[in-house]
Amino acid sequence: MGKTRLEAFSDGVIAIIITIMVLELKVPRGESIEALVPLIPVFLSYVLSFVYVGIYWNNHHHMLHASHKVTGSILWANLHLLFWLSLFPFVTGWMGENHYAAVPSAIYGIVLLMAAVAYWILQQMIILSQGGDSLLRKAIGSDWKGKLSPLIYLIAIPAAFWSQWISQGLYVLVALIWLVPDRRIENVLVGRET
pTM for the complete prediction? Predict the structure, then answer.
């Protein structure tokens, strides 16, 4: 099967996720700058989740670009990833509205962890369908970012019960690790095209 419908569906779902997250930002009552102060935790949660969704969208795009066909297992693995991403608006709002309280922050971390696991499963399904010498297999190499991120989430989740700043800092750290441009797939694709 071709991958066009999978890409279009995934892009649509991700666009809806971002739309739902921004709709959770409520307009404050009042016209002074002080009226915005209570929204700071909600806004910062939105920014963090927007960055995460953007990272997933970007990497998903590159990963699918490195594949040449889609199988049933890839479709289901992709739906699994989209399920966890679709929970971002809920956990983002819950965490922000409750000023990074322990339980919402831990649940946010669990959703981040499960999205990372789902992404890894999708990646493995693509490699399995494309073969061990696939472009994606070559591109990801040792995948240190993909291995380090879940470990940091596993530290951040219980840390939410000790310090909201440690858990939030760890969530930001993972986002920063992935924000650094990762050219692995692009480099392999450029090598293939030349």
Answer: 0.90
